[in-house]
Design a protein that fits this description.
Layout lengths: L2 H18 L2 H5 L2 E8 L7 E2 H11 L8 E9 L4 E8 L4 E10 L5 E10 L6
Parallel strand pairs: 1-6
Antiparallel strand pairs: 1-2, 3-4, 4-5, 5-6
């Protein structure tokens, strides 16, 4: 499987979990000792159990978002993707750093996000 196929498969599964909020869907994304940074310098969620717990505390409602992405950099060790998340009333630009293990589970995830401003000043 190519680096692009591996990360695309993982992102597809992430979007399924995002829309299902099913603990099994979420947990299957991450290695047992994974770290999930919701912002680059924030303390991460540590371990699969905490990731699932925190995800569910901060969940989006199923079907309220769309997510499109494209790769910035894909290597054996790390993938960086640029995405756009659209909610009914706002849109976010995303940059994700994803480090997958040999089984295709994420061992480290870091996200940067910012609101897209549609105003012209």
């Amino acid at each position: 499987m190519t680096d692009h196929e591996k990360v695309a498969t993982w992102i597809d599964r992430y979007v399924v979990a995002w829309n299902s909020n099913d603990p099994d869907d979420i947990g299957q994304l991450f290695s047992e000792d994974a770290t999930y940074y919701t912002a680059p310098f924030r303390q991460p969620w540590r371990g699969r159990s905490q990731i699932v717990e925190e995800w569910l505390l901060h969940k989006d409602e199923p079907g309220e978002t769309t997510f499109v992405w494209e790769p910035v950099t894909l290597t054996d060790e790390m993938s960086i993707i640029q995405g756009v998340t659209t909610y009914p009333d706002e849109t976010f630009s995303n940059l994700w750093v994803i480090r997958l293990d040999d089984e295709g589970r994420c061992r480290e995830f870091t996200e940067w996000w910012m609101t897209q401003d549609d105003s012209t000043e």
